[in-house]
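for the writeup, i need someone to sanity check this before i put it in the appendix. the sequnce is what the collaborator sent (i think, or maybe the updated version? ugh). structure was predicted straight from it, no edits. if anything looks off just tell me and ill rerun, i have time this weekend
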Amino acid sequence: MEFVPKKKLQLLAGRTHPALAQGIAGHLGVELGETNLIDFANTEIRCRFGESVRGADVFVIQTHCEADGRSVNDSIMEQFIMIDAAKRASAKRITAVCPYYGYARQDRKSQGREPITAKLVTDLLSAAGANRVLSVDLHSGQIQGFFDGPFDHLTAMPVLVEHLKAHLPGDVVVVAPDAGRIKAAERFARHLGNDMASVYKRRQKSTINEVEALGVMGDVGGRTCVLVDDMIDTASTMCAAVGQLKREGASEVWAVATHGVFSGPAIDRLKNSVIDRVVITDTLPLPAEKQIDKIEVLPVAKLIADAIDAVFEDTSVSEIFGGENQA
């Protein structure tokens, strides 16, 4: 008698971004498992799965951000707790799905006596019981090496490029908002078939989230500029770059980013700036109070679902992106 093993895919999601988790489940044609997450009176978190995960390939979905009164630290801890519960319930393999990976910008020591918190998060994911990590457009690709196991780095570029090709007006130039994003801007420019330029900026070490744009390298006069970044947080970099591009004669300026963090003064800055359009994806939830006419949100559930399916079926994830996710 030949034994044929049965594979079981189980999706579990935290409370940070339920709409994205439901979208991923819909594309995979599966139901989200019941996590029964509750907060105790002292704010501690407990979960108890509504069905067995023994022997299952479990994917624990949680984007790392503030939502519904819970902090980014709460969302990360909630994911650790769900992973620990899956491990203790005898899951066969556990993948931490982090559409937006928290603490990604603390990926090295820029000054003495600082932590490398991006590495700490991977250490804690591993300690909780994660065998694999999946994330979208990390701030720094080196974070993949912080985890001692497979780390699938996805990119939202196919979703963004498709939208830009269909909607960009006029003569277009792709612009890197700073030196660190030049390679990403080059890839966008190649796919769009357009020229590239870059803004050079100065950040004062004594201040946080304040940036001064000093000039532009490239021809932007009379053209539609597309600023490309991995995230928009306080919008300081974007707004400084937009102002500089307009002063250089740009006819329109679009900002394109995977992650719309929009913390602190970001929405007010964008609302009051001369930026024409902001295009992001839904790796992070966008509360109603932050939804303004300038912002357009594109779905990435199918992209993440395709990657989860590839992991579950033990096929190539990088083939989905033509190897661009490794660049």
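Residues 72-88 form the longest helix (17 residues). Helices lie at 18-28, 72-88, 117-128, 157-167, 182-192, 236-247, 266-272, 301-312.
thx in advance!!
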